[in-house]
Amino acid sequence: MATPMTADQFVKALEAEGLTISEHAGWRTHNRNGVGAWGPVNGVVIHHTAGSNSLELVYAGRSDLPGPLCHSHLAKNGTVTMVGNGRANHAGSFAANAFNAMVTESSTHPRPDSAEPVDANSRTYGLEIENLGNGTDPYPAAQYDAAVRWAAAVCRFHGWSADSVIGHAEGTRRKVDPSFSMSTFRADVAKRLKPPTTPGTATKTTSTSTGKPKPVQYAPFPGAAYFKKNPRSALITAMGRRLVAEGCGKYKSGPGPQWTEVDRLSYAAWQRKRGFSGTSADGWPGAQTWAALRVPKA
Ligand SMILES: [Zn+2]
Question: 95 C-alpha to center of ligand 1: Å?
């Protein structure tokens, strides 16, 4: 479970993904935090506005639904305007099966149940894409590409995979947006997420005996139980080196190959760096932070 981004972190993450950002006056303190929780956050919800010139509407909201109605608005030309920082009235309630598939980053996203016990406004970031949603209004390439970058930026910040991104219609039967394939959209987000574009974490290449470079393979998450078995392995060494590279290493010697309490303290620093707190930053590796750490295959 992750702590939401601050306004500055949000803007920085989007700009790092190559987006053009506009800031609506007042957006940094514009939210619905007074009526409910904001965070921990678990995912990203994509919407279409079902209208045109919706920027002021998604900022201010309507008489029956006060704004902000999302965190960012995306114009046809690809400009992202920040309109909300905190809880926003974008998602409403979600079905538990749909919400859980997003939280666990399931590769399949089931049709939402009719019962909707989850307050998704407290748990998700929302993007409103300017589009009539009638199936014929196009999403210009610049706009679609910006939507992919927006979702990828949020996932990259939190160490999430593209399966943390769902369409509004995938969370609740009440909605039909967005009017494009979310499977294709997730595949496009996944493509952006690897190889990483942030400086210092770019995919490294190694030379084989033939001189042909091949990309580094990352070690899959071995499961939370693995670390509690006090392992001694090349994987622990590789993990420790990555923690050191990320500025989270607490080692006086090593790292590796024996898992020790220092590994746990180092990993806890990495979890905090990724926005986790409390028991989610206890130093026992989890799938999300492991994926974000990109430990080379030992
Ligand atoms: Zn929607």
Answer: 15
